[in-house]
Design goal:
Blueprint: H1 6-24, H2 27-75, H3 77-96
């Protein structure tokens, strides 16, 4: 079974977490999706780049989630979520490309 690349996991966690929270109207459920995807991505980052990469990218993942909230006030919710998901995907790719 092929592995899903960590940039896709991270981006999907941010988008999926928001989508689940919005459509179910249950923010904790969206948070669970966000957390599970973040955990899976962190494990992949650890395997691909070691502890420093994993800690740095996990910090960026949490910052992207937090940063999407004020950004949403300026550009709207979905554009903010897609923006931070794209940025997180690029950051993950940049750190882990060619590894693992």
């Amino acid at each position: 079974m092929p592995r899903i690349p960590s940039p896709a996991i991270a981006a999907a966690g941010l988008v999926g977490g928001y989508a689940v929270a919005r459509w179910t109207k249950k923010r904790p459920l969206g948070g669970a999706v966000l957390a599970v995807a973040g955990g899976v991505a962190a494990r992949e980052w650890q395997q691909a780049g070691g502890a420093k990469a994993s800690v740095g990218l996990t910090t960026a993942y949490v910052a992207a989630f937090a940063g999407s909230h004020p950004l949403a006030k300026k550009i709207g919710a979905w554009p903010a979520v897609f923006s931070v998901a794209g940025a997180m995907g690029v950051a993950s790719w940049a750190v882990t490309r060619g590894k693992a």
